[in-house]
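FAQ: What does a ligand-bound record look like?

Like this one, built around iron/sulfur cluster:
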Amino acid sequence: MASQIKLSDAQSVQWLLTRLLECYGPQYWWPADSAFEIMLGAILTQNAAWINVIKAINQLKIANCLTLDCIIALSKSELAALIQPAGYYNVKAQRIHNLCQFLLESGDFSTLQQWETSKLRSALLQVNGIGLETADDILLYAFDRPVFVVDTYTRRIGSRLGLFKQQAPYEIIRAFFEAALGECSANMNELHALLVQHAKQSCHKVPQCSKCCLKSACIYSTI
Ligand code: SF4
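The answer part, i.e. the structure of the complex:
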């Protein structure tokens, strides 16, 4: 591997995936028991630490309400109370209701699974409260579509490695990874999860480069 990753080099992205796998092993994302749970988690994780998402999901499980039928029957205030640990609970309750309404009107999961990815992505983005990152979380992890999720960690690590500018448009970064990884949703799933892990382990806002397994290829390295 060269001492610096070159922009638009698909082999560099493959190297990144391989190296992170060597460092951390498979991540087995998304941690959930069903596609519906993944979809709810994608909304609950907006501006929230994952540990608090787990608490909110567990409250739904304890209430035996981790189903479309149960959630749609709840009032917004009842749902907000259950998901309170995830924060912004009134806003998120509305967004979850919006998503459930979309699911009800569009058919069951197997129906949506037949839709082309571009059609499904457009439809999800029409749901009030579902933005680019949330839609792509749902597409990749709930529907197993080859769509790369661009989050804060992706921007931070990718820009520090010199792959793109940190403030590059979402769709430019998404297209960069999708071109590099082809149609392989499994690799997109794994790389996104590994980038999150790497950000938590060493590539913090103030990075701990001394223990980083990518430092030989990083233009931002502090050592
Ligand atoms: S060397 Fe430092 S800045 Fe670069 S990826 Fe590793 S932790 Fe992040």
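Follow-up question: can I read anything off the structure? Yes, for example: The mean pLDDT is 94.
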